[in-house]
Amino acid sequence: MRAIWAGILTATLMLGATGIAGATVYTSTTDLDRILFGTGKVSWQQEMPGDFTMPYDTVNSAKLTIYSNFVNGGNDYVQVESNFVGTLKNDTGWVWFWNPMESTKFDVSSSISSPWEQGQPLDVSLFYNESSCLDFLYLDKSVLCLNYNNQTAPVPEPGTMLLMGVGLAGIAVYGKRRRNEA
Ligand SMILES: [Ca+2]
Ligand SMILES: [Ca+2]
Ligand SMILES: [Ca+2]
User: What domains, with CATH codes, occur in the chain?
Assistant: First the structure.
């Protein structure tokens, strides 16, 4: 009898304690497509997976790639969730009419931290400085690649709650019997 109660209780606690975990890869693209002159700030939101929340989910890696060209000076700073993550790579194209897009990859994993609400986007800002004569930069798009362990918040189901109740009652009865026997 004792073993049956212990088995039910263990199974119940295991069901209630954890959801299903697994590494998930998610990507989102934000089209920016703009020419920036002088100095200033551009902000945008990068979509995050709809089932991502913190606590519960954990980030394995998070890379944000920004595509741009005609970038000069190494003074164009990228901020993610209020953290500076680096500068845009200077443009290496030298032919005006043939200028391939440059990509700069930023590690933004430390910018994604608890608490993170469901549906909350990633806030990104670019502080640009293209202030020399006739200077500008072209901002094309940003792409997020997020690898995370998706875990669901434990939601006890009515059946589980009932089992747990029965299990606890069993322990109480068992304990009382032992005391009475002693
Ligand atoms: Ca989740
Ligand atoms: Ca430039
Ligand atoms: Ca610059």
Answer: 23-151 (2.60.120.1200)
